[in-house]
Amino acid sequence: MTTIDAGLVFPERTEHRATYLNAAHTVRSWALTTDHKRIGVMYLVSTTLALMLGGVFALVLRIEHLTPGPTIMDSYTYARMFTMHGVVMVWVFMIPSIPAAFGNFLLPIMLGAKDVAFPRLNLLSYYIYVVGAAWVLIALWMGGCDTGWTFYAPYSTQSPSAVVPTVFGIFILGWSTILTGLNFIVTTHTMRARGVTWMRMPLFVWAMYATSIIQVLATPVLALSLCIVGIDHWFDWGLFDPVRGGDPVLYQHLFWFYSHPAVYIMILPAMGVISEIVPTFSHKNPASYKAIVYSSIGIAFVGFGTWGHHMFVAGISLFDAAAFGVLSMLVAIFSAIKVFTWVLTMKRGSIVLKTPLVYFFAFLFLFVFGGMTGVAVATQSLDVHWHDTYFVVAHFHFVMVGGTLTAWLAALHYWFPKITGRMYSERWGLLGATIIFAGFFLTFFPQFLLGNAGMPRRYYDYDPRFQTLHVISTVGSWALGGGMAMTLTYLLVAVFAGERAPANPWGSRSYEWYVESPPPKENFASEPNFPLGPYDYDVPPEPLRV
Amino acid sequence: MNDLLRTLLALPLQASTYARAVDTLHYVVIGVTMAGATFVFLLALYFLVRHRQKVPGEITARIVTSASHEAFIAGSILALFLAFWVVGSIQYDHMMTPPDDAMPVYVSGKQWMWKFAYADGRETMDELVVPIHKPIKLVMTSRDVIHSFYVPAFRMKHDVVPGRYYTAWFEATVAGDFPIECAEYCGISHSRMLGTVRVLGDEDYRRWLDDSRLRSATAAGGGEADLAVLGRTVAAERACFNCHTFDGQPHIGPTWARLYESRVPLTDGRTIVADEAYLTRSMMDPQVEVVAGFKPVMPSYRGLLPEPEVAALVEFIRSLRNAPFAPTVDLPRVAPLSSGRPQEPRP
Question: Rounded distance, CA B267 to CA B269, Å?
Fold first, then answer.
């Protein structure tokens, strides 16, 4: 165990220490808890279940594509399944995955606080999430929705499937997102301990802060547009029906005004995780703290001006297309700055390769590769051919799965000792990361070629000449699914049977590693005074001053 | 080189005038960005090996990249991306702006078929027949939900939206059959909403014209001029002349003489070019873009005019683009009927 200083300067672990986990054991003590750590764990369990559900949908969809024409289901089932895959993955898993689970657990500790600013609101937002997720499940039980996760009008207002319960579920989930975002913003402003100034906050906090801004500003617009779709579908008001003066293209503007920033709700937290992992395992300060901070804020704001790049062939003017094109290029720059900063952070570091860092390398490869294909589809003339093809499917899976899911796995391994108080098996961790990376690449790389060849997305049936690439993609999905199942299994085993974790197994200077693993219920006995900044690797570590 | 890259990337044949340029930009964007991605990844791997931990607990120097260094990296990437954007914008403008001499074809999508109406009144289903080396302008709308007209071999795609008339264009450079696909999810048979563009050589196209003209019920005798004659009949039957003239006199509605492709001011202050799309929109949603100086009194003809009649009317208006104006006579402006609406069109 390469613990450089855990035993020396950080708190000793005693056998019968009170932790947030053993503070109480009743169901009620979990169900009515206002402890941000327990709420974070409940989110982690719930979102992981959602990931498994969405993952099963994905595997079944891939099996359907083994042959052109019907393989195991009819086209209506196929359409409902790709829609529910998208809905579950985007709203029930990915949006809350890192902020609501890891953000809740870590944000107060990283600020030296006892809890978030509004602990009861925090519990409420969890239950709102549960109710929203339940509505999505009810929609599923009612047969699911077949419009695609984008709910484009006027199809969504006429579809015979369960559109209303699905959009209602997402509407409710949105409230949970807004409340969590609000809570994090207030917490960051008001709960910082002595000495934790804005420029001495861990970068993960900055990522959460930027994400929260988007959540609070963008989600109401989604709620509005989905409300209109629901009303239109239920009462036939014809709000997007051109015969009655409605405009279907207006819906797309409203939807993407939320859903493009939502992409940053999904990727910014992932970038925050990476910004923690790279300095920790390099044992070095970030090459530029400010560059990472300002690019997070830049993404949060410029991200609001790029939605039109989803509509280059939907009939927008040449001027609009040019404006959305150039803004999209600008937002890509912020991501590029982050990537260069992470890589330069490793220069002249003292790098230890552990599973979370392996996931960083997977992230680096997949996210940069996927992000660059995003530059290709943001170039207006190229988007004309590649829009709505498998190229786009591959692009956003590279960013969302190769980026966010990989960072989620990195976070899961990195903070596993802190959350559970146990160590996972490093050997299994490396094996899992390798299988997942290979499986992912095999699944999604062929989809770029399918898109190039002109295969539109959401096609149940396809031309037989596409079959080879589809079969490779499906085989890759089995490796990806198998790797995920293996990883979740060994982590679950480690929760109960893993080696006991020290307070700071990675030798990090970030604030959450000053508290024991798992942390006590109150996080800190009194308001902490962190002796060093979160990335001060140029001086020997010091114990917490209280 | 082009063929090698095209095969490597599994791209279809380049069968339109702009396909080659689009692909070239794609090669550059993908090539440069992939090289960049590989460089970054290899650099990280190099640092991993070069700066691996030698002694547990070692202290590392505090190194902060200078702001000018960062600005240089960010600036050069931005310059590169902006170059993509400039070339992409120029190409996009070209791809979205039909040339003046383009031959119009009316496209309507519905679940789950494509219908094409040609300027001489013929119609085809799921098969678009066009001559080679001639720009074709598609005036597209949908009867139900959003579809998207996609011809991979032409690198051409445009959404087909109910209530809107969009124009798109292409000029085929290779004779043969090319698949049309619907690219916007439109219901359970979305993946079967397929068609074919049949690009014919000049000789074959003439033969097809002769052949299909025999089978055509709508076209009076064939030919572009005849369609304009048909359009005049349609205009008379549909009572268009109650409000519109074709000799330059403004009436309850604007005159059709010299209207086609002219710039007309609207009541909301905008100026618009009266192209096929605008003229068609004005028949279907006449209250939306009203010409300045006129009252919004025209009823909608949506669902009343079959595609060939729309095509014929537009063709008639087009034939008047150089019409001589009659000497202006100061007639009293005819007030609308007391109901504020002119005679309803016959269904």
Answer: 5
Q: Is residue A542 part of a domain?
A: no
Question: Taking the CA of residue B35 as centre, how many other CA atoms within 13 Å lie in the half-sphere pointing to its CB?
Answer: 6
Run of H or E including B262: none
Rounded CA gap, B181 and B183, in Å?
6
Phi–psi pair at A149, nearest 5 degrees: -70, -5
Single-letter residue type at B40: V
Report which residue type is found at A394: A
Domain that holds residue A230: 33-514
The answer to whether the Cβ–Cβ distance between B44 and A361 falls below 8 Å is yes
- Domain extents in chain B: 2-46+70-96, 103-214, 224-319
CATH of the domain at A240: 1.20.210.10
- B57 burial level (CB within 10 Å; 0-12, 13-18, 19+): middle
Residue A203 is predicted with a pLDDT of 97
Instruction: Establish if A534 belongs to a structural domain.
Output: no
Amino acid (one-letter) located at A414: Y
B232 CA to chain A: closest CA distance, Å?
27
Q: How many domains does chain A have?
A: 1
Q: How far is the C-alpha of A475 from the C-alpha of A481, rounded, in Å?
A: 10
Across the interface, whether the CB atoms of A385 and B157 are under 8 A apart is answered yes
Q: Would you call A344 exposed, middle or buried from its count of C-beta atoms within 10 A (0-12, 13-18, 19+)?
A: buried
Residue A293 to residues A212, A282, B150: CA-CA distances in angstroms?
Answer: 14, 19, 42
Separation of alpha carbons A352 and A278, rounded Å: 10
Could you tell me how many residues make up chain A?
Answer: 546
ipTM of the complex model: 0.91
DSSP per-residue string spanning A212-229:
HHHHHHHHHHHHHHHHHH
**pLDDT one-digit tens code per residue, A410-456:** 999 999 999 999 999 999 999 999 999 999 999 999 999 999 999 99
pTM equals 0.86
Residues A451 and B12: beta-carbon distance below 8 Å: no
B133-152 pLDDT, tens digit each: 999 999 999 988 999 999 99
A156-174 per-residue burial string, b: 16 or more CB within 10 A, e: under 16: bbbbebbbbbbbbbbbbbb
Say whether B61 and A152 touch across the interface (CB within 8 A): no
Run of H or E including B37: helix B19-50
Q: How high is the mean pLDDT of chain A?
A: 93
- Which of A282, A354, A365, A380 is best to mutate for the B interface (most B CBs within 10 A)? A380
Backbone angles phi, psi at A500, to 5 degrees: -65, 140
Residues 15-44 of B with CB under 8 A from A: 21-22, 25-26, 29-30, 33-34, 36-37, 40-41, 43-44
The superfamily (CATH) of domain B103-214 is: Cupredoxins -  blue copper proteins (2.60.40.420)
Instruction: Tell me how far apart the alpha carbons of residues A29 and B295 are, in angstroms, rounded to a whole number.
Output: 71
For residue A13, being part of any structural domain is answered with no
Confidence of residue B248 (pLDDT cuts 50, 70, 90): confident
Q: Answer for the pair B111, B220: CB distance below 8 angstroms, yes or no.
A: no
Residues 87-106, chain B: which have Cβ within 8 Å of A?
87-93, 95-97
Residues of A in contact with B161 (CB under 8 A): 242, 248-249, 314-315
One-letter amino acid of A473: S
**A residues 455-484 lying closer than 8 A (beta carbon) to B:** 456-463, 469
Q: How far apart are CA A400 and CA A263, in angstroms?
A: 8
The per-residue pLDDT for B90 is: 96
A348·B43 Cβ contact <8 A = no
Contact A458 B185 (CB under 8 A): yes
* Residue A246 contacts residue A240 (beta carbons within 8 Å): yes
Residue A519 lies in a domain: no
Please provide the CATH number assigned to the domain covering B224-319. 1.10.760.10
Crossing angle for the helix pair A318-346 and A289-302, to the nearest 10 degrees: 160
